[in-house]
Amino acid sequence: MSRDQTSAGSVVKPTFAGTALHEIRMNQYKAEVIVVGGGLSGLSAAKLLREQGIDVVVLEARDRVGGRTFTIQNDKVRYVDLGGAYVGPTQNRLLRLAREFGIKTFLTNEVEDLAFFSRGSMKRFKGTFPPMGGLFSWLDMNNLFRTIDQMGEEIPLDAPWSAPHAAEWDNMTMQQFFDKHCWTRAANSFGREFIEVNVTSEPYEVSALWFLWYVKGAGGSFRIFGTTNGGQERKFVGGSQQISIKMAEKIGKDRVLLNHPVSKIENKPTEVIVQDVNGNRYTAKYIIVASPLPIQNKIIYDPPLPSLRNQMLQRAPMGSVIKTFMYYSTPFWRRKGLCGSSAIDDEEGLVGFTLDHVMPDGSHPALMGFILADKARRYVELTPEERKSRIAHLYSKVFQTDEALHPVHYEEKDWLGEQWSGGCYTTMMPPGYLTKFGSYLRRPIGRMYFAGTETATQWSGYMDGAVQAGERAAREILHTMGKIRADQIWQTEPEDAEVKARPFDTSFWERNAPSIPGLLRFLGVTTLLSAAGAGGYVYHKYFR
Fold first, then answer.
1. What is the pTM of this model?
2. Domains along the chain?
3. 123 and 116 in contact (C-beta within 8 Å)?
4. pLDDT (tens digit, 9 = 90+) per residue, 81-97?
């Protein structure tokens, strides 16, 4: 089985069959704008340009459009998103496209209780974050996410490298951030899981500045992590890849070329010349590069890229995730009063988080589970059958039933092995990256412009961010052409008419409860030592 296959056996991909652009002479083509990458970002750029009457061609390396969105269909699953799937309030650009193409959404189930599995036991809960046990753990967890959101307030979304504390925070990993701010094992452990599920990387890998900016761009810690009223609230009926397929159809079959990996870009004073691995050459006035940052390093540039962009591409790895789906004959978790959402703190367990995956009509019940970051890298060498077995045994413990041991089908997607993504969900930015290279993420180079979800200022790393970035890059070119004003490049998206954001209700104590150090200062050092000895709550570095 190749890395691009799933365990299903017979898989039908939703496809868009691109054809040849109008030919000038043998293997040479001409357009006004070339777009490199047929994912959501590249197609969003091309669609907007076509709507403005611009002649555009999209060069896509894969045999399909959609990039990091990938919907498969077969009789075992009906359809399932092995890549990007979820949409929620404030993701208005993506919702606008779905509405344009008549693609509906349905709610991710969160009617019953959520589950938090830690140290061999399961606790039920409601709300966004799981219960942390004793008073000190609750105070620590509450203060952690309050601090993340408060620090994010001072970071400009369009230029995080200019934040007042940018250098200090960018030189700090999120693990160092936790070491500084977390006093309990529970908060430290869940903080690690929060990083893993949101950016498919480990706390020791990522810049604190980048992660704080990333969370702020998604609307804060509640919005990014939440299901109801959050980023995982809905899925698309028929799958998310439909949006890319519909955009490609609207752009035109003769303008979206599949199996055309770009090998060279000549960025000349009056034009750009692009060559693909098949020997075809394309000439245009402008080019938009919308492929993931690490993949851009596979292209030869003439003249060479500016020094700092060249170095930037070398320092931006992709996150690591294997997305899994375990299908059952019935949604047994719902019978047990559980919605299917769970957070799993288990060192040997493969999956860190699950969500309910049942079709709107109740058919094809499944649990979606992410294998994240270090665990994805550790367990990618297992066979799909071995992963299936280990996940089934984990689910039997989490959901407290032997029914979990008997799946009827299993699907997975190993994004680590994807040649034209390099990983998923997004590029991970390590310490020092944003302050040294961040200003080059969107900066045009001659006639070359840049899209991709990593260049977004809202919902970076998500499908909505991909759309924002693609449309912004297209408008940059329209401005250069003299077709729009500079103040029209960045546009605010109106709120979706149906999927509306609601404020997250927090209690007086959630807003005003002290941190553990604040409480201990109030109580005094003697009480601190007494609490540590009596309850074992305090996990500050001096008491480990």
1. 0.92
2. 23-68+239-305+445-488 (3.50.50.60)
3. yes
4. 999 999 999 999 999 99
